[in-house]
């Protein structure tokens, strides 16, 4: 088992959620600078829009990064198309759908 803390809200490092999960393995991961880091790997459920599925997730401290969590290509494989030239497409779609209900 591995215990860790998550700051679930972007740009808020004060609100913390404690969690624990079964440790699957330790994995070497290269960061964007090319440096290798040994990280714990867990399995967790993720939900995007109406879809929910299980992914493997490596744990690392991303407090100083622009995004608290990155979904890799294995996490979205066969579920989404990725448009590298666009951002926040799902949240824009949900905003449009929500406007029709109110």
On the 0 to 100 scale, the average pLDDT is: 85
Radius of gyration in whole Å, from Cα?
16 Å
Overall SS class? alpha+beta
The total count of helices amounts to 2
The helix content, as a percent range, equals 10-25%
* Run of helices and strands: EEEEEHH
Assembly state here?
single chain
Secondary-structure blueprint:
Blueprint: E1 2-6, E2 17-21, E3 25-30, E4 36-48, E5 51-58, H1 73-76, H2 89-99
Antiparallel strand pairs: 1-2, 3-4, 4-5
Folded structure, characterized:
Helices cover 15% and strands 36% of the residues. The protein is an alpha+beta fold and 102 residues long. The chain has one domain (2-99).
Features:
single chain, 102 residues, alpha+beta, three-stranded antiparallel β-sheet, two-stranded antiparallel sheet, 2 helices, globular
